[in-house]
Amino acid sequence: MRRYLIGACLALVAVTAQAQAPAGPPPKVLKYAFLVAETGFDPAQITDIYSRTVTAHVFEALYHYDPLARPVKLRPLTAAALPEPSADFKTWTIRLKPGIFFADDPAFGGNKRELVAEDYVYSFKRFADPAVKSPFWSTFDDAGLLGLRALREQALKGKKPFDYAAPLEGLRALDRYTLQLKTEQARPRLIEALMASSDLYGAVAREVVEHYGDKIMAHPVGTGPFVLKSWRRSSQMVLDKNPGYRERFYEAEPAADDAEGQALLARLKGRRLPMVDRVEIAVIEESQPRWLSFINAEKDFLERVPADFISQAMPNGKIAPNLAKRGIQGYRIVGPESTMTVFNMEDPVVGGMAPAKVALRRAISLAIDVGREIQLARHGQAVPAQSPVVPHTTGYAAEFKSHISDHDPARAKALLELYGYLDRDGDGWREQPDGQPLLLLRNTQPDNASRRLDELMQKNLQAVGLRLEFKTAKWPENLKSVRGGKFQMWGVASSADKPDAQPALQRLYGPAIGGQNLSRFDMAAFNTIYERMQALPDGPERLALIHEGKRIAATYMPYKQHVHRILTDLSQPWLIGYRRPLFWQDWWQYVDIDNSKRPQP
Known about the structure:
alpha+beta; Dipeptide-binding Protein, domain 1; Dipeptide-binding Protein, domain 3; 5-stranded mixed beta sheet; 4-stranded mixed beta sheet; globular
């Protein structure tokens, strides 16, 4: 009995000591919300910016952009050094750092899996596999890697599985840590095109793809700083710090006169990455609850302040005094992006290159009041777009002016009447030149911001006698329809992922139909210009081709460019180190959370 009592007492002492042991510091959790739902997390299958924000933190490309350098600067990520191009820019040799490992996953059978050059060969080949249906195949096709297009066509014609084992001259691992790319034509910007976007071109392990099969969109496994822990589709994503992430430390090279960048570098230099333990992302599509979640300190960061709350957040471009007293910080830039109306060039009503169809698209453009859109729907948080080329990229000139931004209902009416779009029955609506009814149908989303834009456009077109109706669906559903060519018109935004104009012009490149070319525009003269542009180094000759591409876009109007948005972000005082990325999606690893400043429950 005594022995039993002694044992019970010792056990009680142990439990008491355990209960009294000091708890470790609370985890550092970054909380914010996406304004649009994600679609999945397989880099080869996604295109939306929200899914790409997640994949950018799970996977790693060969190179990445310096987090503070402006103008932007490329740095090695999984590569050991900058690539070694041949003099003619047709051969690129990249050496990888040894000792980088994929996150642990059942697909590896309990083994540690090192990243090797063959992983990039496999990952790049996936973009060419017809079964993957990658929207970014056109980017790889643009690169002209020797043998890759032929391998894809072989699978398409033979209706056989894509041959991943087939050796390619243009894409091969010379040894365990050396990757070599060879192109048909000179590609001076290949490093930016294929090697510097972790969200799309990070390494994927073949074992993972084969293990999860058609469920791969839900199982991202990379070498990056975070791992996906849970996912409730269109609702919540939770990512934890990758426990096996290699030693990597904060380093950057802001310009000497960049006071903000220098201050961030002084505070964070040498810190091990990532600095936060967990990231929790909600999907809050409506503006008011997303705004309130930040104002009530439920979220640490508000990306893209809703336009209807901008006067409360940053009146006249400065943080509101009541928010400044709370230590909230604001960040404001004209984004490297544009919004646009996409016309389906294969649609029998608005598509085609016949003069009457071009006139209809141009009349629609002239009827749209972009200035009023900026004033009313966007609360002044945008500038008119003059071409597909976006700010911060080559070929963009703030002083460039085209008729794309013109609002001129009189000219719109004159064009319509000249080409036979008349109101023959006196009901107030114009008919097609052959007398058939003219109904414009625009895909849209069920949120307040989309409704405001839709109402303005409907009024604009009604003023010139054009009837517009809407087909409402969630954004991922609309994207699927548009990529399949099953639409007439759609409003969408696009962000640049590199400091070059060419990707924006790819939206008019014929071979990119089904991928980046949502409009399905295909013009031999433009295709020739685009291909010449690919092979030229930066300089006056290439800038002239970019300008000619902008002219063709304005003339034939496969897209009506609307605005370049002014992007405003807010952060709570306990979020440290944020600086809006320009051309990349990964930033979580570069910020810290100071829990001592967070309100206690």
